């Protein structure tokens, strides 16, 4: 009787041990599968991006940012990037006035400061490219413009960006450094508007960015001038504080700053930061 009870006790114990081992193996298998390469990562790192990213950007970024927007949409199906291009000062005023946007890319630190001073940026803006001025003339340069001083010739119709716009502030800085006085036929609210005046032959020349001259192709002819080196503009980019789509917006900014994004920007004529 004692021997039989002892055997039964050992049998029960053996079954219990086997069950515990099986349970342990199952639990161990479940744990390993949760971190196995190729399996689902934590939601925070693998969440699929979706929705619209609204970007307010300097007019001079139109061509390159449009290309990057299409690339971003291709990389992240389900997203859409919309742009509002214009003078950086006007865009900054819209943002501080409550316009809904996710990202601001300005053509100068001064215009970005309007947004940061108002507390409307999230984090510290980062310079992602720089841009240099160039003179845009009519195709073939019929007025033989070869220097900044040539723009002061009597009878020459010259267009500048408004002094509150980064391209206008840079042009004024270059003119002041050279001691030159220039009275343009008009001041434009963004660099594309200034360039269009020449493209439409409503002006003989305009002081714009190298990137704009390049984007215009054979519609204008570019003339470099050494004084432009003293007025190079830094372009900062920032996520906005109340960005409706912060996750996708951060990813777009990352694309702009990536080697791939920089290749598109330098290809458009921008300088590296």
Automatic annotation (TrEMBL):
Pfam family for this entry, one: SBP_bac_11
Coiled coil: none
UniProt cross-references to SUPFAM superfamilies, sorted A to Z: Periplasmic binding protein-like II
Residues annotated as signal peptide: 1-24
Entry keywords, A to Z: Metal-binding, Signal
Matching InterPro entries: ModA, ModA/WtpA
NCBIfam families, per database record: modA
Protein family membership: Belongs to the bacterial solute-binding protein ModA family.
Protein name as catalogued: Molybdate ABC transporter substrate-binding protein
Organism: Streptomyces pulveraceus
């Amino acid at each position: 009787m004692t021997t039989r009870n002892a055997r039964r006790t050992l049998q029960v114990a053996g079954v219990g041990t086997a069950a515990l081992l099986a349970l342990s193996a199952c639990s161990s298998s479940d744990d390993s599968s949760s971190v196995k390469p190729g399996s689902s990562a934590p939601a925070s790192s693998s969440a699929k991006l979706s929705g619209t990213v609204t970007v307010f950007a300097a007019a001079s970024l139109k061509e390159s940012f449009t290309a990057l927007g299409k690339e971003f949409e291709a990389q992240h199906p389900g997203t859409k990037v919309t742009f509002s291009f214009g003078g950086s000062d006007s865009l900054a005023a819209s943002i501080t006035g409550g316009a809904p946007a996710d990202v601001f890319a300005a053509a100068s630190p001064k215009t970005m400061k309007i947004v940061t001073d108002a507390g409307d940026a999230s984090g510290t803006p980062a310079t992602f490219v720089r841009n240099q001025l160039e003179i845009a003339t009519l195709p073939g340069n019929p007025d033989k413009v070869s220097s900044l001083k040539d723009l002061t010739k009597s009878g020459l119709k010259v267009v500048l960006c408004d002094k509150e716009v980064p391209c206008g502030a840079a042009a004024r800085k270059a003119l002041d450094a050279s001691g030159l006085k220039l009275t343009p036929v008009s001041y434009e609210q963004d660099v594309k508007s200034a360039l269009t005046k020449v493209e439409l032959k409503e002006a003989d020349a305009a002081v714009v960015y190298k990137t704009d001259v390049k984007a215009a192709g054979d519609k204008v002819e570019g003339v470099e001038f050494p004084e432009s080196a003293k007025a190079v503009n830094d372009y900062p980019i920032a996520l906005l504080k109340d960005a409706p789509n912060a996750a996708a917006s951060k990813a777009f900014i990352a694309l702009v700053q990536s080697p791939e994004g920089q290749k598109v920007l330098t290809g458009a004529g921008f300088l590296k930061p």
